[in-house]
From TrEMBL:
One Pfam family, short name: HEAT_PBS
Phosphoprotein as UniProt keyword: no
Keywords assigned: Antenna complex, Lyase, Phycobilisome, Repeat
SMART domains listed in its UniProt record: EZ_HEAT
Protein name according to UniProt: HEAT repeat domain-containing protein
Top-level taxon of origin: Bacteria
Organism field: Anabaena azotica FACHB-119
Family indicated by similarity: Belongs to the CpcE/RpcE/PecE family.
Length: 252
């Protein structure tokens, strides 16, 4: 289990933001053109950490499969800023080849900011192998990493039925038990995304029960609203009836 104080390079006030919040995207309307992919590929192997970091960040905006092997190599760079930038770059250029290196880095990296980027990238890889490490991170890591592990587990919707079923227990556990409201909120959202892909079975019913409980009982208004949004998004009759009943009775 990681210490909540393990926040080197992770600003406490900003720890719950998206991994890419501080990386400004370059849009078609921007005055600054996108970096040249060939130049950035060369810089990924530059001896100066600052240039490696800038090149890795460029691939948060550039999709180029040629970068992925080099970004994988940078996951074990000595500089944590390079490692976190490499994880973001892989998240934009996901590959099955990146899954095992990402998992290895998640378990060994001392830096919470890096692990936050790694779980985001793992989710984007949409691979069955990502399920266990993401579930473990949701249960044991610092709050910023738990937050993005919950969101990443929602990507199991695109992996398959078994992955969805495997993602539900840690998400329900986090929704019910996590001490941080933002983690509970992301878990509610993720459960809603996964429920849309499930048939009406015991797994589905258990997940809906958890969302109903969070909507009715969570002390945080934001969590209740996210649970409600998930219930509305899924369109489950029990959930819709409860929402209507509680609102008619003036609970909210």
């Amino acid at each position: 289990m990681y210490d909540e104080e393990d926040l080197s390079l992770l600003d406490i006030e900003e720890e719950l933001e998206s991994p890419l919040d501080k990386i400004e995207p370059i849009t078609a309307e921007s005055e600054i053109p996108k970096p040249d992919p060939d130049e950035m590929l060369a810089l990924l192997e530059n001896p100066q950490p600052q240039k490696r970091m800038l090149a890795a960040r460029a691939f948060c905006d550039i999709e180029d499969s040629r970068a992925t092997p080099l970004l994988i190599r940078l996951l074990s760079d000595n500089c944590p800023l390079v490692r976190v930038s490499a994880s973001y770059g892989i998240g934009r250029n996901p590959s099955a080849d990146a899954v095992e290196p990402l998992i290895a880095q998640l378990y060994r990296d001392w830096n919470g900011y890096v692990r936050k980027g790694v779980v985001w990238a793992l989710g984007n890889c949409r691979d069955r192998r990502c399920l266990a490490p993401l579930a473990d991170a949701l249960r044991t890591d610092i709050s910023a990493v738990r937050l993005w592990s919950a969101s990443a587990l929602a990507q199991m919707a695109g992996v398959g039925y078994e992955a969805i079923v495997g993602a539900m227990p840690p998400l329900i556990e986090a929704l019910v038990q996590d001490k941080v409201a933002a983690v509970r909120s992301n878990s509610a959202w993720a459960i809603g995304q996964l429920c849309k892909e499930l048939p009406s079975n015991i797994v589905y019913a258990t997940a809906i029960d958890a969302l109903i409980q969070a909507f009715a009982e969570d002390k945080d208004l934001g969590v209740r609203e996210d649970a409600k949004a998930s219930l509305l998004g899924v369109g489950d009759p029990r959930g819709l009836q409860l929402i209507e009943t509680l609102e008619q009775e003036g609970w909210f």
